[in-house]
From TrEMBL:
This is Bifunctional protein FolD. The lineage of its organism: Bacteria, Bacillati, Bacillota, Clostridia, Lachnospirales. CDD domains: NAD_bind_m-THF_DH_Cyclohyd. The keyword Oxidoreductase applies. One of its GO terms (molecular function) is methylenetetrahydrofolate dehydrogenase (NADP+) activity. Its EC number is 1.5.1.5, 3.5.4.9. Homodimer. One of its GO terms (biological process) is tetrahydrofolate interconversion. Coiled coil: none annotated. It comes from Mobilisporobacter senegalensis. Pathway: One-carbon metabolism; tetrahydrofolate interconversion.
Amino acid sequence: MTKIIDGKEISAIIKDELKSKVEEYKRNGITITLAVIQVGKDPASSVYVGNKKKACAYVGIESLAYELSEDTTQEELLMLIKVLNNKKEVNGILVQLPLPKHIDEDLVIQTIDPGKDVDGFHPQSVGVLSIGQKGFVSCTPAGIIELLKRSNIEIEGKECVIIGRSNIVGKPMALLLLRENGTVTICHSRTKNLKEVTKRADILVVALGKPKFVTKDYVKEGAVVIDVGINRDENGKLCGDVDYEDVFDKVSAITPVPGGVGPMTIAMLLHNCVESVSL
Ligand SMILES: Nc1nc2c(c(=O)[nH]1)N[C@@H](CN(C=O)c1ccc(C(=O)N[C@@H](CCC(=O)O)C(=O)O)cc1)CN2
């Protein structure tokens, strides 16, 4: 029988664990504060930022919201980040992505103090991860590892295939699976014979941003499928990069969309905020 990996349930457990830790910090006089910056009014970003603020409030993390207008200049944004870098009471800084086109995302990420980089996107955080040292890990791939571990899915020795090579998901995902002793392959738009590669996977992570792209022809019988995609189908309904109904009977476990990987992204952001106290 196929197991549905419930990210909503697992993220709720993690949030409760973090709530206890935050309460303990508070008893010792330590408060944790996250600065959340949004530039413009992208509707999806507003939902995610709103959910991040709510989640912070639930676990007892203070959040400072900076809602900047669409026409904010790059200089103004960089200036705000530098001010927050220097504020002792701010533990974490998050700039919601995507940013408007006139702002250089890489430069913005590089301007965040690596000690406050709770998104784990700074080159120093990525570098530390690549050499296996402790640091902030990008929230979505970190959440996927938690989903696998808490669902008792072994990674060690498994063929792990990732579709997508983004800096935020694909590449850190590969490093994390490698750290867990998986055998890792990354596929991308130039990969030849994609189906042949993905059919080798015991664990298939799909993050390419194409609705219902992965059908049963791409998966091995009994594979574990992790769907990172968040898209709208032809009827405007939320769907992943995997054709859930098509692959369901062939796989041993799968994450749904919604309710799979997405909620874990926010849980791991809170985890990183708590970690920021001791890192
Ligand atoms: N600074 C960042 N920007 C972005 C990140 C990020 O980690 N840091 N990731 C994404 C957006 N994102 C968080 O910011 C995010 C996306 C989706 C979800 C989520 O819970 N999705 C739900 C469905 C929600 C819906 O109805 O649309 C689900 O999958 O169940 C949480 C966070 C890009 N930007």
